[in-house]
Amino acid sequence: MHVDDDLERRPLVAVEPGERVIRRRRGARVIVLADDRVLLEQDTDPGLPGVHWWVTPGGGLDPGESFVAAGVRELREETGLVVTEADLIGPVARRLTHHGYTDQVLVQTEEFFVVRTERFTVDTSGYTDEERRTLLHTAWMTREEVAASTVWPSRILELWDAGRGDFLDLGSVEESTIPLTAEQRAFLGLR
For residue 41, what is the enclosing H or E element? Predict the structure, then answer.
């Protein structure tokens, strides 16, 4: 089992499921709400052309960065929305997620925040090279559209109305394009 917690960039090259590197990191995710819509990004696995799902803006923490500071930074980089830490509500949820992709297994401790804003035109010019390869586009989606789509986190509708003081422990979940192998699950202590 190959574990590389210092890997800064994902490999983006498909390998056999049992040969995927296991990466661990902490990440901040932000649920961006405007009236009756949520802003989501269409994500992909480069090893599975045509497969996609939706995610909230966010990503990994930089060294020494707090979850809330990462949420502010990721919003600016991925959407162009500039907010302060005080503008973010939360964390409203926390989880440990296991994402199995064709090139890696990402084990990520995530905190979720909410921000309410006016609808705006998304600016993706701050995307990293990896995001330019994996994120197809953004959309302001209704609850009905979210319910009819594959969205990570799968429990996003439970977080939609979260306010200050609300908190949901989402536990440990797997959201994968290529599920973890039995050996990877055992190594990570999963049932």
Answer: strand 37-44
- Residues 175 and 167: their CA atoms lie apart, in Å, by 21
pLDDT in tens, 136-161: 999 999 999 999 999 999 999 999 99
> What is the spatial distance between Cα 70 and Cα 51, in angstroms, rounded to a whole number?
28
| Backbone phi, psi, residue 87, to 5° | -75, -25
In terms of DSSP H, where are the helices of 6-100?
Answer: 67-79
Taking alpha carbons only, the member of 124, 129, 122 closest to residue 46 is: 129
Structure tokens at 125: 């010019």
In this predicted model, what pLDDT tens digit does every residue of 37-88 receive, in sequence order? 999 999 999 999 999 999 999 999 999 999 999 999 999 999 999 999 999 9
Give the strand pairing for 58-60 and 52-55: unpaired
How far is 127 from 79, CA to CA, in rounded Å?
9
| Residues 31, 66 contacting (CB under 8 angstroms) | no
DSSP state string for 104-136: EEEEEEEEEEEEE--------TT--HHHHHHEE
Enter the tokens of residue 190: 């999963």
